[in-house]
C-alpha cells in the first residue's frame, strides 16, 4: 500500500512540475541566475529507510524492527546571496514496524544550504535542524533532529526545476532522570524527488 | 512572474510614516510556535521509548481467518480448540497455530452461520441460525465432530428466538436468547430438553451478559442491569444481597475464582466483589468504562484480575489485589513487553478471556484473549502460555 502511494505521489509531483514548466516556457528558459532575495518553495516526496538505532550506551539495537516507509515535505528557501540560502521545512514521514505498527514523524525545522552549479543544473548541500514529533501507538514524543543532505535539480523553465535529494536523518530521543536509559539515537536515510518553484 | 511578485511585495509593505499597530508577524509566529510546542510536550510520556519499544516487538503471524474479525467464544475438548466467528473454526491442540485453523464442519456442513459455541471439555455445542440469527437448532458432538446430534432446541426454546450466546457452567449448557419484542430469556438443557432457567430470567427487558458457576454452590447470571443467582437449576432469581452492583445498563462482565467468590464489572470503573455473602466495591480506574473480567490464578501466589477496557484505546488492564496495583498497556504481569501489548491489543475491544478445560501440555497453562479486530487488519485471537516450572509467560502470540 505504502509503496503504491509513494509512486503515485512522485509521479504526480514530477508530472506537475513538467507540465507547469512547459506552460511557462520563456525565450530563455534557463534564465535563473541566483541572487540575494530569490525565494523558492520545494515539494518533496520519497522513501524513508531505517538505517540503525543506538541505545543509551551507544550499542546497536538490533534488530531495529522497522521497515522502510515514505516521506513528504515542503521547504521554503530565501537566498542570502548567490550560493547561500536559508529557510524552513515541514515534513511528514512514516515507517512500519515488525509488529504491524506505524511510526509517524513530523519534523519542523530551519534549513541552511550551499547551492552551486550553473544553469540548468544546480547542486546543493543542505543541513536542517528542528523539532521532531514522533507518534507510535498513541504515544507521542517531541525530540530534536538533524538532517544533512545533498541533491541536484534541473531547471525546466525560468520558474520551475525538478530534482532529487538524499539526506541522512539523525533522530534521537531523550528521556529525563531515571528514564535516561531509554535514550535512543535513530538514523534514517531519506531519498526524495521533488519540484521547486522559484520566485 | 518575479516582477509581479516584487510589485505585490512592495505594495504590501507599510508606507513611510505609517505605523503598524498590534503584534508583528514575528511575534505572532513565536507565540504560535511556543503554543504548539507546549501543547505537544504536554502529551509526552517520559517513560515511553519509541525506538526501544519497537525493538522489542515480535512479528505476529496468525491464521488469516482471525484477521479483521471478532472472536466471540471458545471451547475445547481433549484434542482440539474451537473458536466462534461467523462460523466455528478449529485446530488440533497438537499442532502449531500458524495456518492450522480451519472451518469446523457441523452436522456434515461447512456452509452455515453459527450463533453460539460452548463446551464443557468433552461436549462441543454449536447453535446454528439463519442469516437473521434466528435459531435453527443446537448440535452437540463428543468426538471432535465425527458424529453430531441435533438437540431439538426450538421445541423447548421456541421458533421466534435469536440466539445471543451459549455457555457451559458446571457441565450444564445454558442458552441466552431474545425474541422479536426484545425480551430476553435464559434456558438450560436438563439432559433431554431445554427449559427455562427461572421465571425471573424469562422475558426480561435487559440483555443477558454471562453466566457462571462459582465452584461452591451457586450459578450466577448477569444482565446488563442486574445480578441473578440460583443454587438450583430452573430457579435462578434476582440477587437480593445488600449493596449488590445492580444498576441499569451498567453491568459488563462476571467472573469467579471457582471457590465461591464472584466479581462483576461495571461501566463506572468499579468491580463488585462477592465473598462471604457480602458485596464489596473496588475502584479499578476512576470513571473508566470496564469490560469483561477474568480471574487469573497463574501464578498461584499472586493471582490477578484481568479487566477489559471499554474506552477507545480498548485492550485490558491487570489488577493485583494483594498490593493492590493496576497495570495498563502491557507494562507488567502477563505481557512480556509494552511493545507486544501495543502491537497486539491496542484499539481492539476484548470480548473475553478464556482458558481451556483440558491443558494439552501439563507443564503449561494457556490463556486466550478474544478480541474484536475489525478495521485493524490484525488478528482477533492471541494465546499466552504460562510455564509452571519457571513461572513465566510467553507473551501474546497470534493464533
List the main descriptive attributes of the protein structure presented here.
A: 199 residues, Porin, elongated, B: 399 residues, five-stranded antiparallel beta sheet, four-stranded antiparallel beta sheet, 29 strands, 12% helix, 38% strand, disordered N terminus
Description of the structure:
The complex is a heterodimer of chains A (199) and B (399). Chain A is 11% helix and 61% strand. Chain A is mostly beta strands. Chain A has one domain (2-198): Porin (Beta Barrel), CATH 2.40.160. In chain A, strands 1-2-3-4-5-6-7-8 form an eight-stranded antiparallel β-barrel. In chain A, strand 2 and strand 3 (84-97) form a beta hairpin. The longest helix of chain A has 22 residues, at 2-23. Chain A is elongated and about 55 Å long. In chain A, 40% of the residues are buried. Chain B has helices at 2-12, 25-42, 50-55, 153-157, 338-345; strands spanning 73-76, 80-84, 88-92, 102-103, 113-119, 124-129, 135-141, 149-150, 162-169, 172-178, 184-189, 194-196, 208-213, 219-223, 227-230, 237-238, 251-256, 262-266, 270-275, 278-283, 290-296, 304-309, 316-320, 325-328, 349-354, 364-372, 381-387, 392-393, 397-398. Chain B has five helices and 29 strands. Chain B is mainly beta and 399 residues long. In chain B, strands 25, 26, 27, 28 and 29 form a five-stranded antiparallel sheet that branches. In chain B, strand 10 (172-178) and strand 11 form a beta hairpin. At the A-B interface, strand 5 and strand 6 of A face helix 2, helix 3 and helix 5 of B.
Amino acid at each position: 500500500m505504502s509503496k503504491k502511494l509513494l509512486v503515485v505521489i512522485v509521479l504526480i509531483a514530477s508530472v506537475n512540475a513538467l507540465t507547469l514548466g512547459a506552460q511557462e516556457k520563456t525565450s530563455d528558459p534557463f534564465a535563473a541566475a541566483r541572487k540575494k532575495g530569490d525565494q523558492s518553495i520545494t515539494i518533496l516526496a520519497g522513501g524513508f529507510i531505517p538505517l540503525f538505532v543506538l541505545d543509551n550506551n551507544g550499542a546497536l539495537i538490533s534488530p531495529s524492527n522497522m521497515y522502510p516507509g515514505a516521506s513528504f515535505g515542503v521547504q521554503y528557501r530565501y537566498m542570502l546571496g548567490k550560493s547561500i540560502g536559508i529557510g524552513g521545512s515541514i515534513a511528514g514521514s512514516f515507517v512500519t514496524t515488525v509488529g504491524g505498527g506505524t511510526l509517524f514523524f513530523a519534523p519542523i525545522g530551519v534549513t541552511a544550504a550551499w547551492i552551486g552549479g550553473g544553469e540548468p543544473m544546480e547542486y546543493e548541500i543542505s543541513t536542517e535542524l528542528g523539532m521532531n514529533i514522533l507518534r507510535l501507538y498513541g504515544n507521542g514524543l517531541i525530540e530534536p533532529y538533524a538532517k544533512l543532505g545533498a541533491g541536484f535539480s534541473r531547471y525546466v523553465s525560468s520558474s520551475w526545476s525538478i530534482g532529487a535529494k538524499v539526506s541522512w536523518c539523525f533522530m534521537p530521543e531523550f528521556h529525563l532522570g531515571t528514564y535516561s536509559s531509554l535514550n535512543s539515537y535513530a538514523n534514517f536515510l531519506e531519498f526524495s524527488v521533488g519540484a521547486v518553484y522559484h520566485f | 512572474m518575479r516582477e509581479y511578485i516584487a510589485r505585490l511585495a512592495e505594495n504590501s509593505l507599510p508606507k513611510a510614516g505609517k505605523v503598524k499597530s498590534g503584534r508583528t508577524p514575528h511575534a505572532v509566529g513565536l507565540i504560535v510556535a511556543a503554543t504548539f510546542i507546549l501543547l505537544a510536550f504536554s502529551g509526552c510520556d517520559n517513560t515511553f521509548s519509541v525506538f526501544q519499544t519497537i525493538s522489542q516487538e515480535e512479528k505476529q503471524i496468525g491464521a488469516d481467518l482471525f484477521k479483521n474479525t471478532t472472536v466471540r467464544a471458545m471451547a475445547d475438548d481433549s484434542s482440539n480448540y474451537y473458536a466462534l466467528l461467523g462460523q466455528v473454526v478449529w485446530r488440533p491442540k497438537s499442532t502449531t497455530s500458524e495456518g492450522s485453523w480451519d472451518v469446523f464442519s457441523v452436522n456434515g456442513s461447512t456452509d452455515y452461520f453459527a450463533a453460539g459455541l460452548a463446551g464443557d471439555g468433552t461436549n462441543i455445542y454449536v447453535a446454528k441460525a439463519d442469516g437473521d440469527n434466528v435459531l435453527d437448532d443446537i448440535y452437540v458432538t463428543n468426538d471432535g465432530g465425527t458424529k453430531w446430534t441435533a438437540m431439538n432446541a426450538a421445541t423447548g426454546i421456541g421458533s421466534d428466538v435469536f440466539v445471543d450466546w451459549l455457555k457451559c457452567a458446571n457441565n450444564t449448557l445454558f442458552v441466552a436468547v431474545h425474541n422479536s419484542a426484545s425480551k430476553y430469556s435464559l434456558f438450560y438443557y436438563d439432559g433431554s430438553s431445554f427449559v427455562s432457567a427461572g421465571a425471573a430470567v424469562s422475558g426480561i427487558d435487559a440483555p443477558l451478559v454471562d453466566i457462571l458457576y462459582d465452584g461452591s454452590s451457586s450459578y450466577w447470571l448477569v444482565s446488563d442491569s442486574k445480578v441473578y443467582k440460583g443454587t438450583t437449576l430452573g430457579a435462578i432469581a434476582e440477587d437480593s444481597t445488600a449493596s449488590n452492583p445492580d444498576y441499569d445498563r451498567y453491568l459488563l462482565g462476571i467472573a469467579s475464582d471457582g471457590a465461591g467468590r464472584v466479581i462483576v464489572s461495571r461501566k463506572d470503573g468499579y468491580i463488585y466483589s462477592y465473598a462471604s455473602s457480602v458485596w464489596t466495591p473496588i475502584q479499578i480506574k476512576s470513571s473508566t468504562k470496564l469490560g469483561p473480567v477474568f480471574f487469573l490464578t497463574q501464578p498461584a501466589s499472586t493471582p490477578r484480575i484481568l479487566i477489559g477496557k471499554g474506552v477507545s484505546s480498548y485492550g485490558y488492564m491487570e489488577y493485583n489485589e494483594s498490593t493492590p496495583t493496576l497495570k495498563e498497556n502491557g507494562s507488567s504481569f502477563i505481557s512480556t513487553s509494552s511493545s507486544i501489548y501495543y502491537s497486539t491489543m491496542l484499539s481492539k475491544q476484548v470480548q473475553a478471556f478464556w482458558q481451556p478445560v483440558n491443558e494439552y501440555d501439563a507443564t503449561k497453562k494457556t490463556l486466550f484473549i478474544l478480541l474484536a479486530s475489525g478495521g485493524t487488519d490484525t488478528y482477533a485471537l492471541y494465546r499466552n502460555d504460562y510455564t509452571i516450572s519457571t513461572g513465566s509467560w510467553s507473551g501474546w502470540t497470534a493464533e
